[in-house]
Amino acid sequence: MGRGILSAALLAGLTALAIAAAATGASPAQPHVTVLGDSVLTAVQWNEAPLATLQKGFDMYVDVGVCRTVAGISCPYEGGRVPTLMDVIAGMGIRLGPLVLVEVGYNDDPAVFEREVDDAVEAMIAVGVRRILWVNVPATNEHWQTMDDALDAVASRYGQMTIVDWNETSRNQWHWFQGDGVHLLYPGAIALATLLNQALVQATAPPPPPVPLRPHGAALPSALVGRRYTTHLDIESGTAPYRWRSLSGPLPRGLHLLASGTISGVPRRAVRMPLVFQVTDAAGAVATIRETMVVRQPAPAAHAGNAAGAHR
Asked: What does the pLDDT read at residue 283?
C-alpha cells in the first residue's frame, strides 16, 4: 500500500511538471541564448510573428534597450538612459550563458568602436560565454562601413566571435527599412528575425561526423637488405594532419615508422612480414590498414669476364 501511494504521488508530481512545462513552452532540449539589442531589434521584439521566428527552437532571453551603446553613456530615451552593453554584461555575469547574440552599435562612435567591441567580447568570455554572434550594420555610407570594418577586425582576433551578415542580407532591400535606412518596417523585422534564427541554428548545430578515411590502394614497395629505404603511407580522404602507428608491433629490423606516416631506415635481413597500421586524422576519424612488408636480398653482383674463357 505504501508503495502504491508513493507511485501515485510521483505520477502526480510528474504530471504537474509536464503541465507546467507545456504552459511555459519550455523544453530541456532547447539551447539557451541571450539576445542583447538596441532599438533596431524593437521591430522584432514588439511584433508577434517576427519574435516567434527569432525564438523558434530556443530558450531565449531578450534584452532590448532603445539608444543602447556598447560602452560609455547611452543616448537619452524617455527621460532616462538604458544600460549599455557593458552594463548588461556586468550585471548578468554568468547568467548570460554560453551563447550570446549581440545587435548593438548604431549609437556608438566609430573612432572608439573597435576598442569598445573588443572590451565587450573580452568581458563576455571572462564570464563563460563560449559563442558570440554579433550582427553587423547595413554599410550604406562610410560611417557604417567603418563600423563593419571594426567588427570584422575584432572577429578576426577571437575564435568565439562570428559576424551575422545583416549588411549583405539587407543590401538593396529598401522596402525593409524606415526612412532613416536603419530601423525596420514589418518585412524587415521578419527578414532580420529569420537571419538571426538561422545563425543561431547554425551556431548550435552538432558538428558533422568525421569523413571516413580511405587508405591509398597501392602496396608498399619492396626493400633491399642493407639499402636505404623510404616510403610514405598515404590516405585518400579525411582531414590533415594524420597520425600513424603500428598495431602489429615493430617493423622489420632496421625500419621505423614515424607518426607522419613515413617508413624509413636500412633493413638488416630478408623477411616477408604482415603489418597492421592505424591512422587518426585531425577530426578524430580512425582507419586500420593492413600491409605486407617485403625485404629482399639484393641481387648478386655480376662478375667481370668469363671464368671459362680464361683457359683456352
From this structure: 83
